[in-house]
């Protein structure tokens, strides 16, 4: 019940602050770009666009979301409410995954990619991973500049290997690197059992770390530990 209410609250929050309008504009630009490029480039271009933007939007926007919540003293309310950190996290992951899924579906259909169901599944998993990483970074910052500094190394270790893997210029053993497995799925390739296992373990670790980060943020509301 609380998770559903938090999910709807996040949806309203994102709509109020223009997230949907912004991604409608981005989606239009991406569709025009995909329609303009040669047919042979479309699948890989669509995979890169999906992985680096709608799938990763939680990483890019979580700083702004959490800073807005802090400015409205929302963490103070959560700290004294029955809401659990995991419910808060699941609501954030779910609400952002909705936007990611819709945008990814439009881009994938525009590029006429194969195995749409795998692409969308990979997008949801990637979105969850990036949102969890974004939550961990956002709970530790007090300004947008700090958040950008926190996310730069995350982007390097996530985007560079995944894009190189898409073009098959990474060592064979890196196919089990979680973000590379996600990129394979976003590109429409079915993952291996070992690859799925590494992603599941990685997500479990991120969930635990995110829960700890949220608890720490709620326990330091107003600049004083409680």
TrEMBL record:
The chain crosses the membrane at residues 20-41, 47-68, 89-110, 116-135, 147-167, 187-209. InterPro entries: FLQE3_permease. This is Fluoroquinolone transport system permease protein. Keywords: Membrane, Transmembrane, Transmembrane helix. Coiled coil: none annotated.
